[in-house]
Design brief:
Blueprint: H1 2-15, E1 23-25, E2 31-33, E3 38-43, E4 54-57, E5 60-61, H2 62-66, E6 71-73, E7 83-89, E8 95-102, E9 107-115, E10 124-130, H3 135-146, E11 148-149, E12 152-153, E13 164-169, H4 180-189, H5 217-225, E14 228-236, H6 240-243, H7 255-265, E15 269-273, H8 293-299, E16 303-305, H9 308-316, E17 323-326, H10 335-341, H11 355-366, E18 373-379, H12 381-387, H13 391-414, E19 419-425, E20 431-438, E21 453-454, E22 480-486, E23 492-494, E24 507-509, E25 516-518, E26 529-531, E27 549-554, E28 563-566, H14 567-577
Parallel strand pairs: 2-9, 10-18, 10-19, 13-28, 14-15, 14-18, 15-17, 16-17
Antiparallel strand pairs: 1-3, 3-7, 4-5, 4-8, 6-7, 8-9, 11-12, 13-27, 19-27, 20-21, 20-22, 23-26, 24-25
Helix pairs in contact: 3-13, 4-14, 9-11, 11-13, 12-13
The structure holds zinc ion (ZN).
């Protein structure tokens, strides 16, 4: 609370106004695409007299600027707090916009920038997101899938080898650390938002579904150009990154409602895990209502695929224009489990597609649309494995992302490079490659594993087997492995070894409600050490970090990607490539 007071005081000092001001959405310094829809909202800290309200946009009455008057809410959420809400407005004219609000006692103001775009340059835009992909994951993927000799890599990753590159800042409107909801939302809408929120500014009301909305790239591409939309992931399709391409909610966990919003928006291709929230309990799902959304999508004309085989078959049919692929009840499994270890959920869902198969199928279907398409592809388990301190699985899914990007680059080149391709992470994980683990027990059996961590010249080079045609070494339990450590840790047992049965489970529930403790499962692994964490006990896993992420780009419109950028500018690159506000 002290911190909040300090921040408020600073704002007062800077603006010179008295008392705490109103909260206005969109927020100060918002950049708004000309013609893009948004909800305008003013939250008054107490109850106000509507007769005394004065709201202006560039000096003129707001109702004239927005074309109609807002709804006045006398006591919002039944409390002594009034609000003005005006849904689905847009500003057509580019330039600076000053919004001033007075209730007779208090004054508040925000300044927005409305921007237009140049003419359309790209027929298609494909946004690849490596969820939580850190520079350490990229370097490790390069070493494993390309090899390295005398310090020089034997090849480049497709995700790295692009003409344009930038560092992207990821902070949200409420915190320097984002989650996947507000980070993906910044890419999808060009607006900052708060942790757990997507497609909205998180307001003060209790409802997670009434927050002031901002328009998504998928809505704009469809509304402006009639483009097809594809959303492809290997996590639950309701998870934050895919959901943020379409949904408007301040609560990313609202999976049932997110499925309803997917159905309302009808992306042409929707693919991932997460079938459980499409199905009612009577059909072995976990929806709280009785609606079967798989049946609803099918009735709406969608081809439905539940396995890799079905996916390839329906994508090959020349009349498939809309495709729903749900390949597991929850998340899909990563490449290391699916292709080599057979852990995780592979035994239960043995016919899950690889991300490359998903992307190939999506390209086949989406490219049938004459008006082009926007597609988001997520390699989403990189993040989940990084949270679990399971570095091998995170690296294998980075290689999988690279394979999906290479396939897409080849596809785009064959078409004459009419497609903007962007590759980036949504936020960082605090992982670092610090050396190798030199685990040759046959030569030095009595040395503790911690003392086998090779740093500087003792790191040398790892000895994974040569990669297969897809860039994957067939084994990760080699005697000289990459040592990638996280800087954010719960209490856990560090085994210094890859987990060959199932993904790592560093913690279990602690004695006190809402806390976690080290998982005893790994206590007796030879060489394991209890590593006291540096995170609060309420955290059962590693957390996101606030460093900038790497963005690479190629294709028409990619020249805007350079230097230091904000995550909201990624939306602007896409909007510009598609000419979404050309000649407003
Ligand atoms: Zn995460």
């Amino acid at each position: 609370m002290v911190k909040r007071f300090a921040v408020t005081s600073l704002v007062v000092l800077l603006s010179g106004s008295s008392l705490s001001a109103q909260t206005i959405y969109p927020i100060d310094r918002a950049e708004i695409l000309a013609g893009a829809q948004f909800d305008f909202k003013v939250e008054f800290p107490d109850r106000v007299d509507p007769a005394k309200l004065k709201v202006t946009v560039n000096g003129a009455d707001y109702a004239a600027a927005f074309g109609r008057a807002a709804t006045f809410i006398d006591r919002e959420d039944g409390k002594d707090q009034s609000a003005l809400v005006l849904r689905d407005v847009a500003l057509a004219k580019p330039g600076s916009v000053a919004v001033e609000v007075s209730d007779g006692t208090r004054n508040g103001s925000v300044a927005w920038t409305v921007y237009e775009t140049g003419p359309r340059k790209a027929r298609n835009v494909i946004l690849f997101i490596g969820d939580g992909m850190s520079p350490a994951h990229r370097v490790a993927a390069r070493i494993l899938s390309k090899g390295i000799s005398e310090g020089k890599s034997l090849g480049k990753l497709a995700i790295d080898d692009m003409p344009h590159m930038a560092l992207v800042a990821t902070a949200g409107s409420d915190s320097i650390i984002t989650d996947s909801a507000n980070s993906a939302s910044a890419y999808a809408t060009g607006h900052k938002s708060a942790v757990n929120a997507m497609g909205v500014y998180a307001d003060r009301t209790a409802s997670p579904l009434d927050d002031p909305k901002v328009e998504t790239i998928t809505s704009l591409a469809k509304r402006r150009h009639g483009m097809a939309i594809g959303i492809v992931t290997n996590t639950e399709i309701e998870d934050a990154t895919p959901a943020a391409m379409v949904a408007h909610t301040r609560r990313r966990a609202a999976y049932d409602e997110i499925v309803e919003q997917f159905f309302a928006a009808k992306p042409d291709v929707l693919m991932g895990g997460g079938s459980a929230n499409f199905l009612p309990s009577a059909a072995a799902g976990k929806r709280r209502d009785d609606v079967d959304y798989v049946a609803k999508f099918r009735d709406a004309g969608y081809q439905v695929a539940k396995t890799a085989g079905e996916l390839n078959a329906v994508a090959a049919k020349s009349d498939t224009r809309q495709l729903l692929g749900l390949f597991a009840a929850g998340n899909l499994d990563g490449a290391l489990d699916r292709k080599f270890l057979k852990g995780g959920g592979v035994k239960k869902f043995p016919e899950q597609p690889d991300l490359t198969e998903q992307v190939q199928a999506a390209l086949n279907v989406l490219s049938r649309n004459e008006a082009g398409f926007f597609m988001m592809v997520e390699s989403g388990m990189i993040d989940k494995y990084a949270h679990l301190l399971d570095m091998e699985r995170a690296v294998y899914d980075t290689i999988m992302l690279d394979n999906a990007v290479r396939l897409t680059r080849d596809w785009a080149r064959a078409r004459g490079d009419d497609t903007l391709i962007l590759v980036l992470a949504d936020h960082n994980h605090p992982n670092s490659l610090v050396g190798t683990v030199n685990d040759d027990m046959s030569t030095t059996p009595n040395v503790a594993l911690r003392e086998r961590v090779g740093v500087y010249e003792k790191a040398g080079f790892p000895n994974y087997p040569a990669p297969d045609a897809e860039g994957y070494p067939s084994r990760v339990d080699v005697s000289r492995r990459l040592a990638i450590f996280s800087a954010s840790l719960p209490d856990h047992y560090e085994t210094f070894r890859p987990k060959l049965d199932n993904p790592n489970e560093p913690t279990v529930k602690g004695e006190e409600a809402g806390t976690f403790k080290a998982n005893d499962k790994y206590k007796d692994v030879p060489g394991a050490v209890l590593r006291p964490g540096n995170l609060p006990a309420m955290m059962g896993a590693s957390v996101h970090s606030g460093e900038d992420v790497i963005l690479t780009a190629m294709g028409p419109g990619s020249e805007r990607v350079h230097g230091s950028m904000d995550n909201t500018e990624v939306f602007r690159v896409i909007a510009d490539a598609l000419g979404l506000a050309a000649g407003q």
